């Protein structure tokens, strides 16, 4: 017993045969294979290649740009955090007047944007070894509120151990300082502090760090904040300042303004973007150059797509005339070339994503492309994965390519059937 139509199943073979199909998509699919070996075939391949290369280059460019940004910002934040709170000082010295850490901690609890804060103190010193002498800044840190982000920059040895009983005599030096003074992990060095009366301390090199940023590597040595408190005659509650990490770096300006208006008049709030303006300006300039470069790539890919559809229309002028003669509308023929362009765009995007993501994966896991740390602040090309940016790139290419496809299809309305059929 055959199911009847009342069950929602079409049983009439004549009606099945006459079921309407998408004529535009059907013809587009047919001419796809018919173009093989023709001049149009070569042009379509060029269009696919241009879209693929455009997508691949944009994915790789943004991955590297964001990688640079995150690597450099991470190195800066590991040494200076987002905001620095200290006492006003007219002489711009690295050694500042002390502030009461307990009172400031209570004040900072009023700001929900703060993720964490660590006290610090700085003191200038001269390191003397058997053969060398070098001026540095000893930066005292405290890990009671959490591990120091400088641990991420450790390249040899270990991070100094800060015991609860007494001040640690271990320090962390940069690779540049270690090379200049010919120090290695486990060596001792004398630190001379110019004060009244002068003081001398012997410290042991526990580890070596490297950020690649000369602003830090050539100047700073990390040690226990209690050593500086002892040298300055401060009690345990006095510190040089606090380094504040925010929950969202994008709220930097607003939070700094709010803290400036709320904290005591004798305290200042310094933003990391002002302290190291040259580095952030360089990142901003790099970002602007990449955007201009990507706009040029999109323009070239769009131009190639327009040219490809124009050539396809010219080669199919006779067919367009015949279709119009048998009753096809301009919109039906226009959709036919639209589907053809859609097919080319999707093929190009597929290959572009495979090439771009494949290159990024190879660099991310195997690091085949190195960099000179002296010039680029890191030893390899960095890669940062951001699905949102990848999605936006694909969407932008898709939309611009489809808009480019529509431009030449309006030429179809000007084609007259009689003239087109005679066209050679």
From TrEMBL:
GO terms for biological process: lipoprotein localization to outer membrane. Its main location: membrane. The keyword Transmembrane helix applies. One of its GO terms (cellular component) is plasma membrane protein complex. It is a multi-pass membrane protein. It comes from the Bacteria. Residues 46-258 form the MacB-like periplasmic core domain. Keywords: Cell membrane, Membrane, Transmembrane, Transmembrane helix. It holds the Pfam family FtsX. Residues 291-417 form the ABC3 transporter permease C-terminal domain. InterPro entries: ABC3_permease_C, Lipoprotein-release_system, MacB_PCD. It is found in: Cell membrane. The keyword Ligase does not apply. Belongs to the ABC-4 integral membrane protein family. LolC/E subfamily. This is ABC transporter permease.
């Amino acid at each position: 017993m055959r199911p009847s139509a009342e069950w929602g199943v079409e049983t009439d073979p004549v009606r099945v045969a006459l079921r309407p199909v998408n004529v535009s998509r059907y013809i587009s699919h047919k001419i796809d294979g018919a173009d093989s070996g023709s001049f149009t075939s070569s042009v379509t391949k060029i269009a696919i290649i241009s879209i693929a290369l455009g997508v691949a280059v944009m994915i790789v460019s943004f991955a590297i740009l964001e990688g640079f940004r995150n690597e450099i910002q991470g190195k800066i934040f590991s040494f200076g955090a987002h905001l620095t709170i200290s006492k006003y000082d007219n002489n711009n010295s690295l050694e500042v007047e002390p502030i009461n850490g307990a009172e400031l901690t209570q004040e900072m609890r009023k700001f929900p944007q703060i993720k964490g804060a660590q006290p610090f103190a700085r003191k200038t010193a001269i390191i003397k070894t058997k053969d060398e002498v070098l001026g540095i800044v000893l930066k005292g840190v405290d890990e009671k509120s959490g591990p120091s982000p400088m641990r991420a920059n450790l390249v040899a040895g270990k991070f100094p151990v800060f015991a609860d009983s007494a001040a640690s005599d271990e320090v962390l030096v940069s690779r540049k300082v270690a090379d200049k003074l010919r120090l290695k992990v486990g060596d001792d060095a004398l630190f001379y502090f110019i004060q009244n009366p002068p003081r001398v301390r012997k410290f042991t090199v526990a580890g070596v760090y490297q950020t690649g940023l000369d602003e830090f590597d050539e100047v700073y040595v990390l040690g226990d904040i209690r050593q500086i408190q002892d040298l300055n005659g401060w009690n345990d509650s006095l510190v040089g300042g606090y380094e504040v990490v925010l929950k969202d770096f994008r709220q930097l300006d607003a939070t700094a303004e709010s803290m400036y208006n709320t904290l005591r008049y004798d305290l200042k709030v310094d933003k990391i973007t002002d302290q190291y303006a040259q580095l952030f300006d360089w990142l901003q300039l790099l970002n602007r150059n990449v955007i201009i470069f990507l706009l040029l790539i999109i323009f070239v890919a769009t131009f190639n797509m327009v040219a490809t559809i124009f050539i396809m229309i010219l080669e199919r002028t006779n067919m367009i005339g015949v279709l119009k003669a048998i009753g096809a509308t301009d919109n039906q023929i226009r959709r036919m070339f639209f589907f053809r362009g859609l097919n080319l765009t999707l093929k190009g995007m597929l290959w572009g994503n495979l090439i771009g993501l494949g290159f990024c994966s190879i660099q991310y896991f195997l690091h085949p492309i190195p960099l000179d740390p002296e010039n680029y602040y890191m030893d390899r090309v960095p890669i940062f994965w951001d699905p949102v940016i990848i999605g936006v790139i694909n969407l932008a290419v898709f939309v611009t390519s489809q808009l480019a496809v529509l431009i030449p299809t309006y030429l179809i309305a000007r084609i007259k059937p009689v003239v087109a059929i005679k066209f050679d």
